[in-house]
Input
Amino acid sequence: MKNFTRRQFGKALGGTAAAAFASASLPRIAFAQIATASLQRFPSNFLWGCATAAYQIEGAVSEDGRKPSVWDTFSHTPGKTFQGETGDIADDSYHLYKEDIKLLKNLGVGGYRFSISWSRIFPDGTGQANEKGLAYYQRVVDELLKNNIAPYITLFHWDLPQALPEGWQSRDTAKAFADYAGYVSRQLSDRVSHFFTINEFTCFTDKGYKTGKFAPGMKLPDAQVNQIRHNAVLAHGMAVQAIRANAKSGTQIGLAENATVCVPVIEDSEQIEGARRATREENAQFLTVVMEGKYTDSYLQREGANAPKVEAGDLKIIGSPLDFVGLNVYTPEYVRADSSPTGFAIESRQSSYPRMASDWLYIGPEVIYWAVRNVSDIWKPRALYITENGCSADDVITADGRIEDTDRVMYLRNHLTHLRRAASEGYPIKGYFLWSLLDNYEWADGYSKRFGIHYVDFKTQKRTPKLSAEWYREVISHNAVE
Output
């Protein structure tokens, strides 16, 4: 009871009741009953939404002028994806987008975060824009607005045009991305007020060029990988400036990053400070340089001769001010403060640590609170969104056609409870986009992992709401986790 402040109690009961409480000793159960209703609610203007990505849902990879992305090439290369599965058809949302927007409408969401396929707009990465590709996204935006759902557009979610020479190894790709971002924002900012430049740097840099697990499937030495990382954050900064120069005044710009989230093993001042230091250093090559406009000394020293080559003016561009920060949050790294030069150590997970269906998706719902708190305490962004949060589950259709994904509901309920804590403590969290609206093409895992709150039969393209969709609709309806 000692953690319940006078101010919080006053809000719950009012001055008279607070005075009575001060002179009385109430049973613990009564305290819980009093507090629950107000503590579980989100701010009145909180935005609820869902998220998807172009290559994972659209299909229609050769229609209306679209040319291949690196993921088309990668997925068609034998041995690169689960059972050789590709995004050629995916959820066929290119043709079924109106049906998918009805699903959003039925949930009651206020926003939808989706990505644009760069290869639909500039099939060769640069040059002449493809009007048919743009027209598709104009139709999607118009249909969303007709249903009172705000579009939140991600400009790059890993599907780099295959035609770009050397891909992210080339600095020219950053310039090409800025041109693309400027064009799209100029065409759509009359109807779209929020743009995300890039989604999850590490997944197309490190996984694409270091481990080879993602497109384009390369395994390069550290010096080249660090330069690719630099080209990626430079592309982000150039895109921010291009959007500012081309979009309608008042357009909001940010990014969606799966930052390493460092959770203190114990909530005391020493461990919290250790987690804060870890957050800054473990994200040095991406979020830290974006937010600070400089690489940390420790990162440069650690990389030594392999550190990226930085040209004059790069860091100022990379650090271009943002209107918001988007965080994709799934799993924690637990941190202990220590006496090492860095001041922290990341704990290893024991074999019994619980996870969801994906082998990387360890369960730790407090991660979402610390994602918001660490980023807010270190960099003080104007606004924050949770741009992805969700989980894979081994979904099974029952005899009566239901999908009772109680494990996903458990995962989401616990995360949202911790997100509510961040909101109640005054951190600038403005909205939440659940990943994902649909089961979809899960990159190298093909169709073997389901993240959606709507079940998709990939043979018939039938969509079926899961228990988690019913649960999320109730959360949105009440603006609360109950």
